[in-house]
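User: Can you predict the 3D structure for this chain?
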Amino acid sequence: MGRDGRNLENLGIESSCDETAAAVVADGREILSSVVASQIDIHRKYGGVVPELASREHLRQIVPVVREAIAQAGMELSNVDAIGVTQGPGWWGRCWWELRMEKRWRRRWGSRWCR
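Assistant: Here is the predicted structure, written as structure tokens:
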């Protein structure tokens, strides 16, 4: 159970390669939302993933993807009990973003951060 007796609601963020994704799961069983921003069209003309382009696109997409996942789940960020993120492999920009967001979420809402 969550902090106030309700179901645990966890936010998962995946950004290890060429997709930026976020999902909200209740009690580890029920998917409340799942949002994916693909980078296929960006990298197609190069014949594979270009790390610098991927990193910049993650930075551009992560906030809208997380906001949409939270909205689709019908909740607020303050209701998130824990946040899980991809630990690796990954791009510099993603790692930088995750470290900044970890500090902000912990300070503002006290959410647990899982790597």
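The first helix runs from residue 40 to 44. The mean pLDDT is 81.
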